[in-house]
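Sample entry copied in:
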Amino acid sequence: MSQDLLARSAAGLYWMSRYLSRVENLSRLLYLQTEALSDRPVRDIHFGWTRIYRALGREPPWGVLDQFEDDDYLLADSFTLAGDLTFEETNPSSIRACLGLGRDNARQMRQHISAAMWTQLNLAYLGIRDLTIEAVWRLNPEGFFADTEATIHKFWGVTAATMYRGDGWRFIQLGNLVERVQVISGLLVAQSSALEESGEGTDADWISLLRQFHARAAYNQRFGLQIDPGKVLSLLIADPQLPGSLLGSLLYAQTHFHNLEAGPDANAVGAARESLGFLTQSLAGGWTAPSHDRAQMLAINEAGRELHERINSAFFDYPIEDAPRA
Protein backbone atom coordinates (compact mmCIF):
# COMPACT_ATOMS: atom_id res chain seq x y z
CA MET A 1 0.00 0.00 0.00
CA SER A 2 1.41 3.43 -0.94
CA GLN A 3 2.30 6.03 1.67
CA ASP A 4 -0.34 8.36 0.21
CA LEU A 5 -3.08 5.75 0.57
CA LEU A 6 -1.94 5.02 4.13
CA ALA A 7 -2.20 8.71 4.94
CA ARG A 8 -5.73 8.92 3.50
CA SER A 9 -6.79 5.88 5.50
CA ALA A 10 -5.33 7.23 8.74
CA ALA A 11 -6.89 10.64 8.16
CA GLY A 12 -10.28 9.11 7.37
CA LEU A 13 -10.35 7.14 10.62
CA TYR A 14 -9.04 10.07 12.65
CA TRP A 15 -11.67 12.46 11.26
CA MET A 16 -14.47 9.90 11.52
CA SER A 17 -13.68 9.72 15.22
CA ARG A 18 -13.47 13.49 15.66
CA TYR A 19 -16.83 14.08 13.98
CA LEU A 20 -18.54 11.43 16.08
CA SER A 21 -16.98 12.84 19.24
CA ARG A 22 -18.47 16.22 18.28
CA VAL A 23 -21.89 14.60 17.92
CA GLU A 24 -21.49 13.01 21.34
CA ASN A 25 -20.46 16.24 23.08
CA LEU A 26 -23.00 18.49 21.37
CA SER A 27 -25.78 16.00 22.08
CA ARG A 28 -24.81 16.05 25.75
CA LEU A 29 -24.80 19.86 25.81
CA LEU A 30 -28.23 20.03 24.19
CA TYR A 31 -29.64 17.33 26.46
CA LEU A 32 -28.64 19.34 29.53
CA GLN A 33 -29.86 22.57 27.96
CA THR A 34 -33.31 21.27 26.98
CA GLU A 35 -33.68 19.47 30.31
CA ALA A 36 -33.06 22.78 32.07
CA LEU A 37 -35.95 24.47 30.25
CA SER A 38 -38.47 22.89 32.60
CA ASP A 39 -37.20 24.24 35.91
CA ARG A 40 -34.21 26.59 35.60
CA PRO A 41 -34.47 30.41 35.75
CA VAL A 42 -34.21 32.46 32.57
CA ARG A 43 -30.72 33.68 33.51
CA ASP A 44 -29.36 30.10 33.66
CA ILE A 45 -30.92 29.17 30.31
CA HIS A 46 -29.38 32.23 28.65
CA PHE A 47 -26.00 31.44 30.20
CA GLY A 48 -26.17 27.87 28.87
CA TRP A 49 -26.91 28.92 25.30
CA THR A 50 -24.19 31.57 25.44
CA ARG A 51 -21.65 29.01 26.62
CA ILE A 52 -22.58 26.54 23.88
CA TYR A 53 -22.32 29.04 21.04
CA ARG A 54 -19.06 30.52 22.27
CA ALA A 55 -17.53 27.09 22.71
CA LEU A 56 -18.48 26.28 19.11
CA GLY A 57 -17.21 29.62 17.81
CA ARG A 58 -20.57 30.19 16.13
CA GLU A 59 -23.13 33.00 16.29
CA PRO A 60 -26.84 32.29 16.80
CA PRO A 61 -29.06 32.58 13.69
CA TRP A 62 -30.04 36.16 14.53
CA GLY A 63 -26.62 37.36 15.66
CA VAL A 64 -26.13 38.56 19.24
CA LEU A 65 -27.75 36.37 21.88
CA ASP A 66 -29.59 38.91 24.04
CA GLN A 67 -31.07 38.11 27.43
CA PHE A 68 -34.48 36.44 27.09
CA GLU A 69 -37.32 38.76 28.14
CA ASP A 70 -39.78 36.16 29.47
CA ASP A 71 -40.73 32.49 29.32
CA ASP A 72 -42.47 32.83 25.95
CA TYR A 73 -39.34 34.21 24.29
CA LEU A 74 -37.26 31.66 26.16
CA LEU A 75 -39.09 28.67 24.68
CA ALA A 76 -39.37 30.11 21.18
CA ASP A 77 -35.72 31.10 21.02
CA SER A 78 -34.58 27.80 22.53
CA PHE A 79 -36.53 25.97 19.83
CA THR A 80 -34.74 27.99 17.13
CA LEU A 81 -31.31 27.57 18.71
CA ALA A 82 -31.73 23.81 19.15
CA GLY A 83 -32.78 23.51 15.51
CA ASP A 84 -29.74 25.49 14.38
CA LEU A 85 -27.39 23.21 16.30
CA THR A 86 -29.11 19.96 15.39
CA PHE A 87 -30.49 20.05 11.84
CA GLU A 88 -29.52 23.35 10.18
CA GLU A 89 -28.16 22.49 6.72
CA THR A 90 -25.88 25.54 6.56
CA ASN A 91 -24.28 24.75 9.93
CA PRO A 92 -21.28 22.43 9.40
CA SER A 93 -21.10 21.81 13.15
CA SER A 94 -24.71 20.63 13.56
CA ILE A 95 -25.38 17.16 14.91
CA ARG A 96 -26.77 15.91 11.61
CA ALA A 97 -23.89 17.42 9.60
CA CYS A 98 -21.20 15.91 11.85
CA LEU A 99 -22.92 12.52 11.95
CA GLY A 100 -23.13 12.60 8.15
CA LEU A 101 -19.45 13.52 7.81
CA GLY A 102 -18.46 10.78 10.24
CA ARG A 103 -20.51 8.29 8.22
CA ASP A 104 -18.95 9.49 4.94
CA ASN A 105 -15.46 8.94 6.33
CA ALA A 106 -16.46 5.52 7.63
CA ARG A 107 -17.91 4.53 4.25
CA GLN A 108 -14.61 5.33 2.56
CA MET A 109 -12.73 3.36 5.23
CA ARG A 110 -15.01 0.30 5.21
CA GLN A 111 -12.02 -2.03 4.73
CA HIS A 112 -10.44 -0.67 7.94
CA ILE A 113 -13.42 -0.92 10.31
CA SER A 114 -15.59 -3.84 11.40
CA ALA A 115 -18.95 -4.63 9.82
CA ALA A 116 -20.61 -4.04 13.19
CA MET A 117 -19.13 -0.53 13.39
CA TRP A 118 -20.46 0.37 9.96
CA THR A 119 -23.90 -1.05 10.75
CA GLN A 120 -24.15 0.89 14.01
CA LEU A 121 -23.02 4.16 12.43
CA ASN A 122 -25.21 3.79 9.35
CA LEU A 123 -28.29 3.11 11.48
CA ALA A 124 -27.48 6.11 13.66
CA TYR A 125 -27.37 8.40 10.63
CA LEU A 126 -30.50 6.99 9.01
CA GLY A 127 -32.31 7.44 12.31
CA ILE A 128 -31.99 11.24 12.21
CA ARG A 129 -31.57 11.90 8.48
CA ASP A 130 -35.21 12.84 7.88
CA LEU A 131 -36.09 14.20 11.32
CA THR A 132 -36.96 17.86 11.92
CA ILE A 133 -36.67 20.00 15.01
CA GLU A 134 -40.46 20.36 14.97
CA ALA A 135 -40.91 16.61 15.37
CA VAL A 136 -38.23 16.38 18.06
CA TRP A 137 -39.58 19.36 19.99
CA ARG A 138 -43.16 18.12 19.86
CA LEU A 139 -42.32 14.77 21.42
CA ASN A 140 -39.37 14.82 23.83
CA PRO A 141 -36.32 16.96 22.94
CA GLU A 142 -34.22 16.00 25.96
CA GLY A 143 -34.96 12.33 25.27
CA PHE A 144 -33.85 12.73 21.65
CA PHE A 145 -30.52 14.28 22.62
CA ALA A 146 -29.93 11.69 25.36
CA ASP A 147 -30.64 8.90 22.85
CA THR A 148 -28.26 10.46 20.30
CA GLU A 149 -25.47 10.62 22.87
CA ALA A 150 -26.19 7.00 23.86
CA THR A 151 -26.02 5.95 20.20
CA ILE A 152 -22.47 7.31 19.94
CA HIS A 153 -21.56 5.61 23.21
CA LYS A 154 -22.81 2.37 21.68
CA PHE A 155 -20.64 2.97 18.61
CA TRP A 156 -17.57 3.39 20.84
CA GLY A 157 -18.51 0.17 22.61
CA VAL A 158 -18.91 -1.72 19.33
CA THR A 159 -15.56 -0.31 18.19
CA ALA A 160 -13.85 -1.48 21.39
CA ALA A 161 -15.42 -4.93 21.09
CA THR A 162 -14.81 -5.63 17.40
CA MET A 163 -11.87 -3.65 16.00
CA TYR A 164 -8.36 -5.03 15.52
CA ARG A 165 -5.81 -3.23 17.69
CA GLY A 166 -3.61 -1.89 14.91
CA ASP A 167 -2.82 1.63 13.80
CA GLY A 168 -6.38 2.12 12.54
CA TRP A 169 -7.64 1.61 16.09
CA ARG A 170 -5.01 4.00 17.41
CA PHE A 171 -5.95 6.78 14.99
CA ILE A 172 -9.60 6.40 16.00
CA GLN A 173 -8.64 6.74 19.66
CA LEU A 174 -6.34 9.66 18.90
CA GLY A 175 -9.06 11.51 17.00
CA ASN A 176 -11.53 11.07 19.84
CA LEU A 177 -9.03 12.24 22.44
CA VAL A 178 -7.79 15.28 20.49
CA GLU A 179 -11.41 16.34 19.95
CA ARG A 180 -12.10 15.90 23.66
CA VAL A 181 -9.14 18.11 24.56
CA GLN A 182 -10.45 20.86 22.30
CA VAL A 183 -14.03 20.46 23.56
CA ILE A 184 -13.07 20.68 27.24
CA SER A 185 -10.72 23.62 26.79
CA GLY A 186 -13.21 25.38 24.49
CA LEU A 187 -16.02 25.02 27.02
CA LEU A 188 -13.80 26.30 29.82
CA VAL A 189 -12.86 29.36 27.77
CA ALA A 190 -16.54 29.94 26.96
CA GLN A 191 -17.50 29.49 30.63
CA SER A 192 -14.93 32.06 31.72
CA SER A 193 -15.98 34.52 29.02
CA ALA A 194 -19.69 34.20 29.82
CA LEU A 195 -19.04 34.63 33.55
CA GLU A 196 -17.06 37.81 32.92
CA GLU A 197 -20.12 39.30 31.23
CA SER A 198 -22.83 38.00 33.55
CA GLY A 199 -21.00 38.78 36.78
CA GLU A 200 -20.64 36.28 39.59
CA GLY A 201 -21.59 32.78 38.52
CA THR A 202 -23.99 30.42 40.23
CA ASP A 203 -23.55 26.87 41.44
CA ALA A 204 -25.76 25.79 38.54
CA ASP A 205 -23.18 27.08 36.03
CA TRP A 206 -20.53 24.80 37.50
CA ILE A 207 -22.81 21.84 38.14
CA SER A 208 -23.88 21.80 34.49
CA LEU A 209 -20.20 21.83 33.50
CA LEU A 210 -19.57 18.82 35.72
CA ARG A 211 -22.60 17.03 34.30
CA GLN A 212 -21.42 17.69 30.75
CA PHE A 213 -18.49 15.37 31.43
CA HIS A 214 -20.40 12.93 33.68
CA ALA A 215 -18.27 14.16 36.57
CA ARG A 216 -20.83 15.23 39.18
CA ALA A 217 -20.60 11.98 41.15
CA ALA A 218 -16.79 12.05 41.01
CA TYR A 219 -16.79 15.63 42.32
CA ASN A 220 -19.10 14.74 45.20
CA GLN A 221 -16.91 11.77 46.12
CA ARG A 222 -13.74 13.86 46.15
CA PHE A 223 -14.90 17.21 47.47
CA GLY A 224 -18.38 16.84 48.94
CA LEU A 225 -21.59 18.57 47.92
CA GLN A 226 -20.46 22.19 48.19
CA ILE A 227 -19.51 23.63 44.80
CA ASP A 228 -16.10 25.31 44.60
CA PRO A 229 -15.21 26.56 41.08
CA GLY A 230 -11.50 25.99 41.66
CA LYS A 231 -12.11 22.38 42.63
CA VAL A 232 -14.39 21.87 39.63
CA LEU A 233 -11.59 23.05 37.35
CA SER A 234 -9.02 20.95 39.18
CA LEU A 235 -11.13 17.84 38.56
CA LEU A 236 -11.97 18.55 34.92
CA ILE A 237 -8.51 19.73 33.94
CA ALA A 238 -5.89 17.89 35.96
CA ASP A 239 -7.32 14.77 37.61
CA PRO A 240 -5.98 11.72 35.72
CA GLN A 241 -8.47 9.43 37.47
CA LEU A 242 -11.36 11.11 35.62
CA PRO A 243 -11.43 9.54 32.12
CA GLY A 244 -12.89 12.66 30.52
CA SER A 245 -10.52 15.15 32.13
CA LEU A 246 -7.99 17.07 30.08
CA LEU A 247 -5.05 15.32 31.69
CA GLY A 248 -6.73 11.90 31.49
CA SER A 249 -7.42 12.42 27.79
CA LEU A 250 -3.84 13.53 27.13
CA LEU A 251 -2.38 10.54 28.98
CA TYR A 252 -4.52 8.16 26.92
CA ALA A 253 -3.50 10.05 23.77
CA GLN A 254 0.18 9.65 24.66
CA THR A 255 -0.25 5.89 25.01
CA HIS A 256 -1.88 5.53 21.60
CA PHE A 257 0.56 7.94 19.94
CA HIS A 258 3.62 6.09 21.26
CA ASN A 259 2.21 2.77 20.00
CA LEU A 260 1.79 4.04 16.43
CA GLU A 261 4.20 2.72 13.85
CA ALA A 262 6.82 5.23 12.75
CA GLY A 263 5.48 7.96 10.50
CA PRO A 264 7.00 8.93 7.15
CA ASP A 265 8.52 12.18 8.44
CA ALA A 266 10.55 11.59 11.60
CA ASN A 267 10.93 15.31 12.32
CA ALA A 268 7.18 15.95 12.05
CA VAL A 269 6.40 12.94 14.24
CA GLY A 270 8.93 14.19 16.79
CA ALA A 271 7.31 17.64 16.79
CA ALA A 272 3.87 16.11 17.38
CA ARG A 273 5.24 13.94 20.19
CA GLU A 274 6.92 16.97 21.75
CA SER A 275 3.70 19.00 21.56
CA LEU A 276 1.68 16.22 23.19
CA GLY A 277 4.31 15.70 25.89
CA PHE A 278 4.58 19.41 26.70
CA LEU A 279 0.82 19.83 27.03
CA THR A 280 0.54 16.72 29.21
CA GLN A 281 3.43 17.75 31.45
CA SER A 282 2.02 21.26 31.89
CA LEU A 283 -1.06 19.77 33.57
CA ALA A 284 0.58 16.88 35.42
CA GLY A 285 1.43 19.06 38.42
CA GLY A 286 -2.20 19.97 39.02
CA TRP A 287 -4.29 23.07 38.37
CA THR A 288 -3.84 26.04 40.69
CA ALA A 289 -4.90 28.99 38.49
CA PRO A 290 -7.96 31.02 39.56
CA SER A 291 -11.30 29.93 38.11
CA HIS A 292 -11.51 33.18 36.13
CA ASP A 293 -8.03 32.87 34.55
CA ARG A 294 -9.13 32.81 30.92
CA ALA A 295 -5.57 33.38 29.62
CA GLN A 296 -4.39 29.97 30.82
CA MET A 297 -7.49 28.28 29.41
CA LEU A 298 -6.95 30.00 26.07
CA ALA A 299 -3.34 28.79 26.10
CA ILE A 300 -4.49 25.19 26.63
CA ASN A 301 -7.04 25.54 23.84
CA GLU A 302 -4.40 26.89 21.47
CA ALA A 303 -1.99 24.10 22.45
CA GLY A 304 -4.71 21.59 21.58
CA ARG A 305 -5.10 23.14 18.14
CA GLU A 306 -1.33 23.05 17.63
CA LEU A 307 -1.32 19.38 18.62
CA HIS A 308 -3.87 18.62 15.90
CA GLU A 309 -1.85 20.55 13.31
CA ARG A 310 1.31 18.63 14.18
CA ILE A 311 -0.47 15.28 14.04
CA ASN A 312 -1.85 16.30 10.66
CA SER A 313 1.62 17.22 9.39
CA ALA A 314 3.18 14.05 10.77
CA PHE A 315 0.72 11.48 9.44
CA PHE A 316 -1.79 12.93 6.96
CA ASP A 317 -0.29 15.87 5.09
CA TYR A 318 3.39 15.11 4.74
CA PRO A 319 5.42 15.71 1.52
CA ILE A 320 5.80 12.71 -0.81
CA GLU A 321 9.42 12.23 -1.90
CA ASP A 322 8.56 11.18 -5.45
CA ALA A 323 5.86 13.83 -5.94
CA PRO A 324 6.24 15.82 -9.20
CA ARG A 325 7.88 19.21 -8.86
CA ALA A 326 5.72 22.27 -9.40
